[in-house]
Amino acid sequence: MTLKTCILSGFAAVILTTGTAVAEESPQEAIDRCALKVDLSDRVACLEGALLGTPIAAPKVTEVATIAPQPEAAEDTSLGAEQVAARAPRKDRGSSENERSTFNVASTRTVPYKKLEVTLENGQVWIQSNGDSRDIYVPKRFRDSLTVEIYRASLGGYRMHLKEIKKTIRVRRLK
Fold first, then answer.
1. Residue 105: inside a domain, yes or no?
2. Exposure of 163 by Cβ count < 10 A (0-12 exposed, 13-18 middle, 19+ buried)?
């Protein structure tokens, strides 16, 4: 007889002899009773007893596991933590992530270094950012009826789409 068959026959003998002793409780009832244990070591011992079929005295008072609310994580102040926090999704952003706003333009002008400055009808002033090197020329026929669409860029900053001339530039707000 090999060691494997000896062990298996020993387990079978234990299960057969103890299976009749625990006839008053079904296996599912034993597992449900063990799931109510709060302490992990008591729960494991109870489940082992239910698996092997050994009788374990039923608890007189039913223990119910309660889950305490998790405290908010302490703010990390280590080196580079502000960069990790900036990349984390924030709940206060809402749906404004892909929001696009359309505005009518009051005036446009070219400022030094060939940057386009756009004044909207609501008083906001936007200027082409330094990283955008495109030269934008607004034809005279569109200067009175120009509309723009401003939205948040995927990697930060803002973009302005000049609808009538079909150009998109990177912008930053001055006022």
1. yes
2. middle
Total domain count, the chain: 2
42-95 residue pLDDT tens: 888 888 887 777 655 555 455 555 666 666 666 777 777 777 777 777 665 555
pTM of the model: 0.46
- 115 in a structural domain: yes
